Amino acid sequence: MTRVSPFNSPLMLGFDQLERMLDRLAKSAGDGYPPYNILQLDDNRMRITLAVAGFAETELSVTVEGNQLHIRSVKSEAADSGATYLYRGIAARQFHRTFLLADGIEVGGATLENGLLNVDLTRPMAAEQVRTIPIAKASANGAQGARVVGPARHEPPANSERSEKNASARRVVGASARERST
Questions:
Q1: Kind of pairing between the strands at 106-113 and 116-122
Q2: Which one, 35, 97, 143, 168, has the greatest CB density within 10 A?
Q3: CB-CB contact of 39 with 76 (8 Å)
Q4: pTM higher than 0.85, yes or no?
Q5: Is residue 171 scored above 90 in pLDDT?
Q6: Which CATH entry fits the domain spanning 34-78+86-122: 1.25.40.180, 2.60.40.790, 3.20.20.140, 3.40.50.720?
Q7: What is the rounded average pLDDT for all residues in the chain?
Q8: 61 phi and psi angles, rounded to 5 deg
C-alpha cells in the first residue's frame, strides 16, 4: 500500500528533507527506552536527562551530526556472561536515541551522575549587528548613470597597440538612444 504524504503536492517543492525528518521522529517516538526528561533551565539553556542506570561512561556515546544529537550505548555482555539471574529487572540493552536540534542550539557538554546522563544545550544570544553602508559619490563627468563596461579599470599598463584595441572595445552604457545609434 502506498503511503500518502502531505508533502506530495506539486506546489510544495524542496520539502523532502522535512518529510524524512518527520518520518525519523515518528519511528523513534515508539521506543521508550531509555526514559528521558527535557528541562528548561532558563531562556537560553536546556538539559536532556536520560536514565542510564548500569552504564559506565565508556559505554555511552554523545555525538552531534548536523542538527541531530545522537546518544548511543554499547553494553558489553561479557561481564554478565557467567552470571545466573533469578530476576532481571534492570534493562541494560543497547539504545540509540536521537534528538533534532533547532538552528543555533549548541551542545555544551555531558555528565554522568547517579545513573543519569545529563546533556546541556545552549542557545547563544544573537549579537545585534550594525552595518554601515558606504555611500558612493556620483561620477564627476556629469553623465548621470553612465558607466564604462569593459576590462577592469585597474588593469596593468600594456602595449599601446593592445590599449588601443581595448579602448575601442569599450562602450558607454546609459547613453541616450540617439548617441547609441550613431
A1: antiparallel
A2: 97
A3: no
A4: no
A5: no
A6: 2.60.40.790
A7: 76
A8: -135, 130
Cα 75 from Cα 60, distance rounded (Å)? 8
Count Cβ neighbours within 10 Å for each residue of 139-160 and write b for 16 or more, e otherwise: eeeeeeeeeeeeeeeeeeeeee
Please report which helix (H) or strand (E) contains residue 134, including its range: none
**Nearest-angstrom CA–CA distance, 159 and 161:** 5
Count of Cβ atoms closer than 10 Å to residue 55 Cβ: 20
* Element housing 103 (H / E): none
Assign 3-class secondary structure to 46-83.
EEEEEECCCCCHHHEEEEEECCEEEEEECCCCCCCCCC
Domain ranges (residues) in the chain: 34-78+86-122, 148-181
What pairs with residue 109 in β-bridges? 120
Residue range 137-160, pLDDT digits in tens: 887 665 555 555 555 555 555 555
What are the backbone angles phi and psi of residue 129, rounded to the nearest 5°? -110, 130
